[in-house]
Amino acid sequence: MVSLFLLSLPLLPVIITLCRSPLRALYHRVCERVLKVLRGKVCVRRTHAYIFCECTHGQAESVLASFDLYIKTHASFSIGPEKGVFLDEVVRREAPLRVLELGMHCGYTSVRILRLLPTSGTLLTVEVDPLTAEKGEEILLVAGFKNSQFQVLPCSSAEAISRLASHLGEDLLDLVVMDHDPEQYLPDLLALQRENLLSKRSVLILNRVAEAGARVVLEYLTTKPHDYTVRQRFKDMLEIRCGNSESF
């Protein structure tokens, strides 16, 4: 299907120019989505191959160092070392036992989180693309983590949230990291609320909050001052505490 679409791309502009602008706009949106998927898969394969070959297996810090070297010369979905340090500070301070990561990508953020979790801590990481989920899980194993410390859920964020209770049992989430599609931030936050998976002490980390899709959730948070408190921001990464400032 994708191959057929790509072969027809050179002819489509000629047809589209004869049509009205709504169809032309649709054409551009479809092209952007297809190219984004293709670029993402190439990025995942190349990143995985580099990390797998360059790092010292079994050492999480070596995996992170290899990631940091890679992103200096290659496009990557990694949050990078600067925002990584910001995330580290939150994880060290909160010492969460149950962490949900929405948007695993190649596993960089997952490695940063896992290496700082308490011995009884668990990471549930969600990745909608099966290839990315598979490669990301391999990176976590290469970094020296065991399957008992994490679980990769290869599905949409909405599907994962609907099944979280079966993974958590009586526990609630201590930390939620959102780094998937910013347009899903608000729907997923509302779903977490409906499923009663957040406590008054839960912490949310939102990446790429400068993107248009994330503005909706930021506007929502301003209407809930007693339910959420923005604690700090670093670049386009935001830390949010469930509950008002008087509760912590």
Summing up helix and strand content along with how strands pair, one would put the structural category as alpha/beta
Secondary structure: number of strands? 7
Given as residue ranges, the uncertain stretches (5+ residues, pLDDT < 50) are: 1-9, 30-40
Strand content: 15-25%
How many DSSP helices? Answer: 10
Q: Give the CATH topology of the domain at 78-242.
A: Rossmann fold
Principal-axes geometry comes out as globular
In angstroms, what is the radius of gyration?
Answer: 20 Å
What strand order characterises the main sheet?
A: 3-2-1-4-5-7-6
Summarize the main sheet: 7 strands, mixed
Order of helix and strand elements from N to C terminus: HHHHHEHEHEHEHEHEE
CATH class descriptor name of the domain at 78-242: Alpha Beta
Distance between the termini: 53 Å
Task: Describe this protein's structure.
- One of its GO terms (molecular function) is catechol O-methyltransferase activity.
- This is catechol O-methyltransferase.
- InterPro entries: SAM-dependent_MTases_sf (IPR029063), SAM_O-MeTrfase (IPR002935).
- This protein has 248 residues and is of the alpha/beta class.
- It has a domain of 165 residues: Vaccinia Virus protein VP39 (Rossmann fold, 3-Layer(aba) Sandwich).
- 50% of the residues lie in helices and 17% in strands.
- The protein contains 10 helices and 7 strands.
- It has a 7-stranded mixed β-sheet, sandwiched between helices.
- α3 runs parallel beside α7 and α5 packs parallel to α6.
- The N and C termini lie far apart (53 Å).
